[in-house]
Amino acid sequence: MGNIVTYYRRSRCPARFWGGRALKKMNSAKHADMPKWVLEDLEIPDNCRLLDIGCGGGANLNRILSLNPTATAVGSDISKLAMEITREVNYRDIVDKRLLLLGGDATQLPLAKESYDLVTAFETIYYWHSME
Fold this sequence. Notes:
about 15% strand, globular, alpha/beta, single chain, about 130 residues
């Protein structure tokens, strides 16, 4: 297989050394422009319940939760390594019970429909098998 296909498959579920590097790069300033642009005009209402699908390294969850101290969130990612890095980046919000992390395939998560005020999925939908 070509390098592009190999890269795509690996980036779908980051693991091990190179996956960790990719996740940390996603959390870097280089990948912050698009989420910052989206969030600059987004109002996070009080007591907002947010779901972030494919939360990667957790930087966007951190940005969103910093916009309103009453907001709570659930972050999900299929990658165990992504969940570990998200825990590190958002440790305080987890301890404060503002953030719950659920690993696994987004289509299999035990989430009630229509129980969130805001759902985000930054740079992840191209990995999904189905938009449903």
